[in-house]
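Predict the holo structure. Ligand: zinc ion.
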Amino acid sequence: MSVWDDLVGQEKVSAVLGAAARDADALVTAAAADEPLPETSRMTHAWLFTGPPGAGRDQAARAFAAALQCVSPDRALGGAPGCGFCDGCHTALLGTHADVTAVAAVGAEILVKDMRDTVRKSFTAPANGRWQIILVEDAERLNEKSANAVLKAVEEPAPRTVWLLCAPSIEDVLPTIRSRCRHLNLRTPSVDAVADMLVRRDGVDPRAAADAARATQGHVDRARRLATDPAARERRAAVLKLPLRLDEVGACLRAAQELVDAAAEDAKQLAEEMDGREAEEMKAALGAAQGGRLPRGTAGVMKDLEDMQKRRRTRTQRDSLDVALGDLTTFYRDVLALQLGSRVAIANTDAEDALDRLARAGSPESTLRRIEAIAACRDALDRNVAPLLAVEAMTMALRAG
Ligand SMILES: [Zn+2]
Protein backbone atom coordinates (compact mmCIF):
# COMPACT_ATOMS: atom_id res chain seq x y z
CA MET A 1 0.00 0.00 0.00
CA SER A 2 1.70 3.21 -1.13
CA VAL A 3 0.86 6.86 -0.46
CA TRP A 4 -0.80 6.98 -3.90
CA ASP A 5 -3.49 4.46 -2.96
CA ASP A 6 -5.41 7.14 -1.08
CA LEU A 7 -6.01 9.09 -4.27
CA VAL A 8 -9.24 7.68 -5.60
CA GLY A 9 -10.13 8.11 -9.26
CA GLN A 10 -7.25 10.54 -9.90
CA GLU A 11 -5.09 8.51 -12.27
CA LYS A 12 -3.84 11.50 -14.29
CA VAL A 13 -2.87 13.53 -11.23
CA SER A 14 -1.14 10.51 -9.64
CA ALA A 15 0.85 9.91 -12.81
CA VAL A 16 2.08 13.52 -12.99
CA LEU A 17 2.98 13.61 -9.30
CA GLY A 18 4.63 10.19 -9.43
CA ALA A 19 6.85 11.26 -12.33
CA ALA A 20 7.78 14.50 -10.54
CA ALA A 21 8.59 12.60 -7.33
CA ARG A 22 10.81 10.20 -9.29
CA ASP A 23 12.77 13.07 -10.88
CA ALA A 24 12.92 14.88 -7.55
CA ASP A 25 14.48 11.81 -6.00
CA ALA A 26 17.00 11.50 -8.85
CA LEU A 27 17.99 15.12 -8.19
CA VAL A 28 18.48 14.60 -4.46
CA THR A 29 20.42 11.38 -5.01
CA ALA A 30 22.73 12.95 -7.60
CA ALA A 31 23.40 15.98 -5.39
CA ALA A 32 24.17 13.77 -2.38
CA ALA A 33 26.67 11.73 -4.43
CA ASP A 34 28.22 14.89 -5.91
CA GLU A 35 27.27 13.71 -9.36
CA PRO A 36 26.12 16.03 -12.15
CA LEU A 37 22.44 16.89 -11.82
CA PRO A 38 20.03 15.50 -14.43
CA GLU A 39 19.52 17.98 -17.29
CA THR A 40 15.77 17.73 -17.47
CA SER A 41 13.37 17.26 -14.62
CA ARG A 42 9.62 17.03 -14.23
CA MET A 43 9.95 18.45 -10.74
CA THR A 44 8.62 21.97 -10.07
CA HIS A 45 8.91 24.28 -7.07
CA ALA A 46 5.29 25.39 -6.82
CA TRP A 47 2.12 23.39 -7.32
CA LEU A 48 -1.53 24.31 -7.14
CA PHE A 49 -4.08 21.58 -6.38
CA THR A 50 -7.70 22.39 -7.12
CA GLY A 51 -10.87 20.33 -7.13
CA PRO A 52 -14.29 20.04 -5.50
CA PRO A 53 -14.58 19.37 -1.75
CA GLY A 54 -13.91 15.74 -0.93
CA ALA A 55 -12.05 14.97 -4.16
CA GLY A 56 -8.88 14.89 -2.10
CA ARG A 57 -6.77 17.93 -2.98
CA ASP A 58 -5.24 17.96 0.51
CA GLN A 59 -4.58 14.22 0.30
CA ALA A 60 -2.94 14.64 -3.10
CA ALA A 61 -0.67 17.35 -1.73
CA ARG A 62 0.14 15.25 1.36
CA ALA A 63 0.83 12.14 -0.72
CA PHE A 64 3.20 14.15 -2.90
CA ALA A 65 4.90 15.61 0.18
CA ALA A 66 5.36 12.08 1.53
CA ALA A 67 6.73 10.83 -1.78
CA LEU A 68 9.26 13.68 -1.84
CA GLN A 69 10.36 12.74 1.69
CA CYS A 70 10.34 8.96 1.05
CA VAL A 71 13.60 7.37 2.19
CA SER A 72 12.74 3.75 1.52
CA PRO A 73 15.78 1.97 0.02
CA ASP A 74 13.42 0.60 -2.67
CA ARG A 75 11.99 3.98 -3.63
CA ALA A 76 13.70 4.09 -7.03
CA LEU A 77 12.60 0.60 -8.02
CA GLY A 78 9.56 0.16 -10.22
CA GLY A 79 6.90 2.76 -9.47
CA ALA A 80 7.14 6.19 -7.91
CA PRO A 81 8.62 6.92 -4.48
CA GLY A 82 6.09 7.08 -1.65
CA CYS A 83 6.17 3.65 0.02
CA GLY A 84 3.88 4.83 2.81
CA PHE A 85 5.88 3.01 5.50
CA CYS A 86 9.34 4.52 5.81
CA ASP A 87 10.03 7.22 8.37
CA GLY A 88 9.85 9.97 5.73
CA CYS A 89 6.48 8.91 4.32
CA HIS A 90 5.01 8.11 7.68
CA THR A 91 5.87 11.39 9.40
CA ALA A 92 4.94 13.46 6.32
CA LEU A 93 1.48 11.87 6.24
CA LEU A 94 1.09 12.26 9.99
CA GLY A 95 2.10 15.92 9.89
CA THR A 96 5.16 15.61 12.12
CA HIS A 97 7.94 15.67 9.52
CA ALA A 98 10.43 18.44 10.35
CA ASP A 99 10.58 19.54 6.70
CA VAL A 100 6.86 19.60 5.99
CA THR A 101 5.08 22.72 7.26
CA ALA A 102 1.32 22.86 6.88
CA VAL A 103 -0.62 26.11 7.05
CA ALA A 104 -4.39 26.01 7.40
CA ALA A 105 -6.81 28.88 7.80
CA VAL A 106 -8.44 29.23 11.19
CA GLY A 107 -11.07 31.76 10.30
CA ALA A 108 -12.01 33.53 7.11
CA GLU A 109 -8.47 34.59 6.25
CA ILE A 110 -4.87 33.49 6.58
CA LEU A 111 -3.20 36.53 8.12
CA VAL A 112 0.26 37.72 7.22
CA LYS A 113 1.42 37.18 10.83
CA ASP A 114 0.46 33.49 10.46
CA MET A 115 2.56 33.24 7.31
CA ARG A 116 5.64 35.11 8.52
CA ASP A 117 7.44 32.18 10.18
CA THR A 118 6.45 29.85 7.37
CA VAL A 119 7.77 32.16 4.67
CA ARG A 120 11.01 32.54 6.62
CA LYS A 121 11.31 28.77 6.89
CA SER A 122 10.77 28.42 3.14
CA PHE A 123 14.06 30.23 2.56
CA THR A 124 16.03 27.73 4.66
CA ALA A 125 17.48 24.39 3.64
CA PRO A 126 15.63 21.23 4.71
CA ALA A 127 16.93 19.63 7.90
CA ASN A 128 17.21 16.14 6.42
CA GLY A 129 18.72 17.09 3.08
CA ARG A 130 15.71 16.32 0.87
CA TRP A 131 12.96 18.95 0.40
CA GLN A 132 11.60 21.84 2.44
CA ILE A 133 7.87 21.53 1.85
CA ILE A 134 5.29 24.21 2.60
CA LEU A 135 1.70 23.06 2.32
CA VAL A 136 -1.04 25.73 2.28
CA GLU A 137 -4.36 23.94 2.60
CA ASP A 138 -6.67 26.90 2.04
CA ALA A 139 -4.77 29.09 -0.39
CA GLU A 140 -8.05 30.81 -1.28
CA ARG A 141 -8.01 32.30 2.21
CA LEU A 142 -4.71 34.12 1.80
CA ASN A 143 -5.59 37.80 2.04
CA GLU A 144 -3.80 40.46 0.03
CA LYS A 145 -0.92 40.87 2.45
CA SER A 146 -0.31 37.20 3.18
CA ALA A 147 -0.64 36.36 -0.53
CA ASN A 148 2.05 38.93 -1.31
CA ALA A 149 4.33 37.37 1.28
CA VAL A 150 3.79 33.98 -0.35
CA LEU A 151 4.25 35.43 -3.82
CA LYS A 152 7.74 36.69 -3.00
CA ALA A 153 8.70 33.28 -1.66
CA VAL A 154 7.24 31.44 -4.65
CA GLU A 155 8.99 33.78 -7.09
CA GLU A 156 12.44 33.06 -5.74
CA PRO A 157 12.31 29.80 -3.84
CA ALA A 158 15.33 28.29 -2.16
CA PRO A 159 16.79 25.46 -4.28
CA ARG A 160 15.12 22.69 -2.27
CA THR A 161 11.85 24.39 -1.35
CA VAL A 162 8.51 23.18 -2.68
CA TRP A 163 5.22 25.07 -2.27
CA LEU A 164 2.02 23.02 -2.38
CA LEU A 165 -1.09 25.20 -2.52
CA CYS A 166 -4.65 23.86 -2.35
CA ALA A 167 -7.82 25.72 -3.31
CA PRO A 168 -11.32 24.85 -4.55
CA SER A 169 -10.71 26.35 -8.00
CA ILE A 170 -8.03 28.20 -9.91
CA GLU A 171 -10.08 31.42 -9.81
CA ASP A 172 -9.79 31.38 -6.02
CA VAL A 173 -6.07 32.09 -6.14
CA LEU A 174 -4.44 35.40 -7.08
CA PRO A 175 -3.40 35.39 -10.76
CA THR A 176 0.15 36.38 -9.83
CA ILE A 177 0.48 33.30 -7.62
CA ARG A 178 -1.23 30.81 -9.89
CA SER A 179 0.85 31.86 -12.89
CA ARG A 180 3.89 30.62 -11.00
CA CYS A 181 2.39 27.29 -10.03
CA ARG A 182 1.93 24.09 -11.91
CA HIS A 183 -1.79 23.46 -11.79
CA LEU A 184 -3.40 20.06 -11.14
CA ASN A 185 -7.17 19.72 -11.05
CA LEU A 186 -8.77 16.79 -9.23
CA ARG A 187 -12.12 15.43 -10.33
CA THR A 188 -14.95 14.21 -8.15
CA PRO A 189 -14.31 10.46 -8.04
CA SER A 190 -17.13 8.25 -9.24
CA VAL A 191 -19.36 6.52 -6.70
CA ASP A 192 -18.01 3.19 -7.96
CA ALA A 193 -14.38 4.26 -7.51
CA VAL A 194 -15.07 5.35 -3.93
CA ALA A 195 -16.94 2.13 -3.12
CA ASP A 196 -14.13 0.07 -4.62
CA MET A 197 -11.55 1.91 -2.49
CA LEU A 198 -13.57 1.26 0.68
CA VAL A 199 -13.66 -2.46 -0.07
CA ARG A 200 -10.02 -2.72 -1.09
CA ARG A 201 -8.35 -0.42 1.38
CA ASP A 202 -10.62 -0.44 4.41
CA GLY A 203 -12.06 -3.95 4.12
CA VAL A 204 -15.65 -2.66 4.11
CA ASP A 205 -18.39 -5.06 3.03
CA PRO A 206 -19.27 -4.32 -0.66
CA ARG A 207 -22.92 -3.52 0.04
CA ALA A 208 -22.12 -1.10 2.89
CA ALA A 209 -19.35 0.44 0.75
CA ALA A 210 -21.79 1.09 -2.11
CA ASP A 211 -24.32 2.67 0.28
CA ALA A 212 -21.72 4.94 1.88
CA ALA A 213 -20.26 5.98 -1.49
CA ARG A 214 -23.68 6.80 -2.92
CA ALA A 215 -24.80 8.75 0.16
CA THR A 216 -21.68 10.93 0.10
CA GLN A 217 -21.55 11.48 -3.67
CA GLY A 218 -17.83 11.18 -4.31
CA HIS A 219 -16.64 12.71 -1.05
CA VAL A 220 -13.91 10.23 -0.13
CA ASP A 221 -13.34 11.08 3.54
CA ARG A 222 -17.02 11.22 4.37
CA ALA A 223 -17.67 7.95 2.61
CA ARG A 224 -14.94 6.27 4.65
CA ARG A 225 -16.21 7.78 7.87
CA LEU A 226 -19.77 6.68 7.13
CA ALA A 227 -18.72 3.17 6.20
CA THR A 228 -16.46 2.60 9.20
CA ASP A 229 -17.91 4.67 12.06
CA PRO A 230 -21.30 3.75 13.55
CA ALA A 231 -21.49 7.15 15.30
CA ALA A 232 -21.22 8.89 11.92
CA ARG A 233 -24.08 6.76 10.58
CA GLU A 234 -26.23 7.67 13.57
CA ARG A 235 -25.44 11.34 13.13
CA ARG A 236 -26.39 11.22 9.47
CA ALA A 237 -29.64 9.42 10.22
CA ALA A 238 -30.54 12.15 12.72
CA VAL A 239 -29.69 14.90 10.22
CA LEU A 240 -31.87 13.29 7.53
CA LYS A 241 -34.81 13.28 9.95
CA LEU A 242 -34.55 17.05 10.46
CA PRO A 243 -36.37 18.28 7.34
CA LEU A 244 -39.64 16.60 8.34
CA ARG A 245 -39.43 18.05 11.85
CA LEU A 246 -39.19 21.67 10.75
CA ASP A 247 -42.83 22.65 10.92
CA GLU A 248 -42.87 25.56 13.33
CA VAL A 249 -40.44 28.16 14.69
CA GLY A 250 -39.75 26.36 17.97
CA ALA A 251 -38.83 23.18 16.13
CA CYS A 252 -36.48 25.11 13.81
CA LEU A 253 -34.66 26.71 16.73
CA ARG A 254 -34.34 23.36 18.53
CA ALA A 255 -33.01 21.69 15.39
CA ALA A 256 -30.41 24.45 14.97
CA GLN A 257 -29.29 24.06 18.56
CA GLU A 258 -28.96 20.29 18.12
CA LEU A 259 -26.83 20.65 14.99
CA VAL A 260 -24.49 23.13 16.67
CA ASP A 261 -24.28 21.10 19.90
CA ALA A 262 -23.44 17.91 18.00
CA ALA A 263 -20.59 19.68 16.21
CA ALA A 264 -19.28 21.13 19.47
CA GLU A 265 -19.40 17.66 21.01
CA ASP A 266 -17.26 16.30 18.15
CA ALA A 267 -14.67 18.98 18.75
CA LYS A 268 -14.69 18.32 22.50
CA GLN A 269 -14.20 14.60 22.02
CA LEU A 270 -11.25 15.08 19.70
CA ALA A 271 -9.72 17.55 22.16
CA GLU A 272 -10.11 15.07 25.03
CA GLU A 273 -8.42 12.37 22.98
CA MET A 274 -5.46 14.47 21.89
CA ASP A 275 -4.80 17.65 23.88
CA GLY A 276 -3.61 16.09 27.14
CA ARG A 277 -1.44 13.52 25.48
CA GLU A 278 0.16 16.11 23.20
CA ALA A 279 0.90 18.36 26.17
CA GLU A 280 2.53 15.48 28.07
CA GLU A 281 4.62 14.50 25.04
CA MET A 282 5.69 18.07 24.51
CA LYS A 283 6.66 18.49 28.18
CA ALA A 284 8.69 15.29 28.04
CA ALA A 285 10.39 16.46 24.85
CA LEU A 286 11.25 19.78 26.50
CA GLY A 287 12.81 17.90 29.41
CA ALA A 288 10.31 18.84 32.09
CA ALA A 289 11.37 17.84 35.58
CA GLN A 290 9.32 15.50 37.76
CA GLY A 291 6.10 17.24 38.74
CA GLY A 292 5.86 18.98 35.38
CA ARG A 293 8.07 22.04 35.97
CA LEU A 294 9.30 23.27 32.61
CA PRO A 295 12.87 24.34 31.98
CA ARG A 296 13.37 28.09 31.74
CA GLY A 297 12.44 29.68 28.41
CA THR A 298 10.17 26.92 27.12
CA ALA A 299 6.81 28.38 28.17
CA GLY A 300 6.37 29.89 24.70
CA VAL A 301 6.47 26.46 23.09
CA MET A 302 3.65 25.25 25.33
CA LYS A 303 1.67 28.39 24.54
CA ASP A 304 2.07 27.67 20.80
CA LEU A 305 0.79 24.14 21.35
CA GLU A 306 -2.26 25.45 23.22
CA ASP A 307 -2.98 27.95 20.45
CA MET A 308 -2.77 25.18 17.86
CA GLN A 309 -5.15 23.02 19.91
CA LYS A 310 -7.63 25.87 20.21
CA ARG A 311 -7.53 26.46 16.47
CA ARG A 312 -8.03 22.75 15.87
CA ARG A 313 -11.10 22.75 18.12
CA THR A 314 -12.69 25.58 16.12
CA ARG A 315 -11.82 23.86 12.89
CA THR A 316 -13.20 20.47 13.95
CA GLN A 317 -16.45 22.08 14.98
CA ARG A 318 -16.72 23.86 11.63
CA ASP A 319 -15.87 20.70 9.68
CA SER A 320 -18.38 18.64 11.63
CA LEU A 321 -21.14 21.17 10.98
CA ASP A 322 -20.17 21.18 7.34
CA VAL A 323 -20.71 17.42 7.12
CA ALA A 324 -24.28 17.85 8.40
CA LEU A 325 -24.91 20.66 5.92
CA GLY A 326 -23.54 18.46 3.14
CA ASP A 327 -25.96 15.68 4.11
CA LEU A 328 -28.85 18.16 4.08
CA THR A 329 -27.87 19.47 0.66
CA THR A 330 -27.80 15.95 -0.79
CA PHE A 331 -31.17 15.30 0.84
CA TYR A 332 -32.86 18.31 -0.81
CA ARG A 333 -31.14 17.54 -4.10
CA ASP A 334 -32.86 14.17 -3.91
CA VAL A 335 -36.18 15.88 -3.19
CA LEU A 336 -35.62 18.02 -6.29
CA ALA A 337 -34.79 14.97 -8.40
CA LEU A 338 -38.06 13.36 -7.36
CA GLN A 339 -40.01 16.54 -8.09
CA LEU A 340 -38.46 16.64 -11.54
CA GLY A 341 -39.34 13.00 -12.07
CA SER A 342 -35.92 11.37 -11.83
CA ARG A 343 -35.57 8.53 -9.36
CA VAL A 344 -32.33 7.21 -10.82
CA ALA A 345 -29.94 9.61 -9.17
CA ILE A 346 -31.24 9.37 -5.59
CA ALA A 347 -28.33 9.36 -3.10
CA ASN A 348 -30.31 8.78 0.09
CA THR A 349 -32.03 5.55 -0.81
CA ASP A 350 -32.48 4.87 2.91
CA ALA A 351 -34.65 7.96 3.39
CA GLU A 352 -37.05 7.52 0.51
CA ASP A 353 -40.23 7.93 2.56
CA ALA A 354 -39.18 11.33 3.83
CA LEU A 355 -38.00 12.34 0.36
CA ASP A 356 -41.33 11.37 -1.17
CA ARG A 357 -43.31 13.28 1.43
CA LEU A 358 -41.33 16.48 0.97
CA ALA A 359 -41.34 16.12 -2.80
CA ARG A 360 -45.14 15.99 -2.80
CA ALA A 361 -45.47 18.80 -0.24
CA GLY A 362 -43.54 21.44 -2.21
CA SER A 363 -42.49 22.68 -5.63
CA PRO A 364 -39.06 22.47 -7.33
CA GLU A 365 -38.77 26.25 -6.77
CA SER A 366 -39.23 25.93 -3.02
CA THR A 367 -36.70 23.08 -2.93
CA LEU A 368 -34.17 25.19 -4.82
CA ARG A 369 -34.70 28.00 -2.31
CA ARG A 370 -33.92 25.55 0.50
CA ILE A 371 -30.75 24.34 -1.19
CA GLU A 372 -29.73 27.99 -1.50
CA ALA A 373 -30.43 28.56 2.20
CA ILE A 374 -28.00 25.76 3.08
CA ALA A 375 -25.36 27.24 0.78
CA ALA A 376 -25.91 30.64 2.41
CA CYS A 377 -25.38 29.07 5.83
CA ARG A 378 -22.09 27.54 4.67
CA ASP A 379 -20.97 30.92 3.36
CA ALA A 380 -21.88 32.58 6.64
CA LEU A 381 -19.88 29.98 8.60
CA ASP A 382 -16.92 30.57 6.28
CA ARG A 383 -17.14 34.25 7.14
CA ASN A 384 -17.05 33.38 10.86
CA VAL A 385 -20.66 34.28 11.62
CA ALA A 386 -21.61 32.76 15.00
CA PRO A 387 -22.59 29.16 14.18
CA LEU A 388 -25.92 29.18 16.02
CA LEU A 389 -27.08 32.36 14.27
CA ALA A 390 -26.17 31.04 10.84
CA VAL A 391 -27.77 27.64 11.43
CA GLU A 392 -30.96 29.14 12.88
CA ALA A 393 -31.38 31.33 9.82
CA MET A 394 -31.03 28.18 7.72
CA THR A 395 -33.46 25.94 9.62
CA MET A 396 -36.05 28.77 9.52
CA ALA A 397 -35.63 28.96 5.76
CA LEU A 398 -35.98 25.17 5.48
CA ARG A 399 -39.33 25.25 7.28
CA ALA A 400 -41.96 23.36 5.35
CA GLY A 401 -44.82 25.30 3.78
ZN1 LIG B 1 8.52 5.97 1.97
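Residues 11-185 form a domain with the Rossmann fold fold (CATH 3.40.50.300). Residues 373 and 397 are 6 Å apart (CA to CA).
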